[in-house]
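Quick one:
INPUT:
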């Protein structure tokens, strides 16, 4: 049979491949590592839960949410048996599982998981002010944005996302950082759901600014955000909107389009 050293080599390889963006190729190796370690030491080890969670995140990233959810379930079951109630590892799994449940349309279940994760981070932050916990809590809160949006609570969703941005900025030191991608995209989704084209232009330009700073104006992500902003602006103009605020957005968009060329 295969040794633990072999499984650890697989785990290292998975991390390297994921870092290079080779997620699809990494999935079968991640699953082999998880199953191999579980077969060797059983499932009463937090390390097995971690490998299950890692494989789940990869599966989610390649468009296999149901397989991912099954593995998050396995990870969570192990952690609930072995860890204290307010453990950071368990909170991370709850947050990822909760956000996936929201994505799958199981909003009430997802919300419960995310709120439990936030509660754990609150408890941990009372014990120690760790910047990584601040960012993790902000992510968990931001994952709740689609739940609020689905209820039509756009202002509440926006306020939650703005608060998460503010928290993350205190840690990363600037508003144009990859860790803020989720919040900027969710703010744009809120604007689209409202049908507010003017607000949507501004939010998509915020997304473009982020991608321009992080990936460069030649990146596909930057170009897509600029294109979405242009479509929203064209719709706003077609609806008869015209005022200084819209003209300022138009100038901002034209500058972004010039960078894209």
């Amino acid at each position: 049979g295969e040794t633990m050293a072999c499984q650890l080599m697989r785990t290292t390889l998975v991390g390297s491949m994921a870092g290079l963006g080779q997620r699809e190729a990494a999935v079968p190796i991640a699953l082999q590592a998880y199953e191999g370690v579980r077969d060797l030491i059983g499932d009463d080890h937090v390390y097995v839960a971690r490998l299950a969670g890692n494989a789940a995140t990869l599966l989610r990233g390649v468009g296999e949410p149901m397989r991912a959810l099954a593995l998050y379930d396995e990870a969570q079951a192990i952690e609930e048996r072995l860890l204290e109630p307010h453990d950071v590892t368990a909170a991370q799994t709850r947050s990822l599982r909760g956000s996936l449940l929201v994505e799958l349309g199981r909003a009430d279940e997802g919300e419960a998981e995310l709120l439990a994760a936030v509660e754990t981070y609150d408890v941990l932050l009372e014990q120690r002010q760790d910047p990584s916990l601040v960012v993790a809590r902000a992510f968990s809160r931001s994952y709740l944005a689609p739940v609020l949006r689905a209820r039509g609570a756009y202002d509440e969703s926006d306020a939650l996302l703005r608060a998460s941005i503010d928290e993350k900025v205190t840690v990363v030191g600037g508003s144009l950082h990859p860790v803020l991608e989720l919040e900027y995209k969710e703010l744009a989704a809120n604007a689209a759901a409202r049908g507010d084209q003017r607000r949507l232009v501004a939010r998509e330009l915020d997304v473009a600014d982020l991608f321009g700073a992080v990936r460069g104006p030649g990146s596909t992500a930057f170009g897509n955000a600029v294109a979405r902003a242009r479509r929203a602006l064209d719709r706003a103009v077609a609806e008869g909107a015209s005022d200084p605020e819209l003209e300022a957005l138009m100038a901002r968009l034209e500058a972004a389009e010039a960078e894209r060329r």
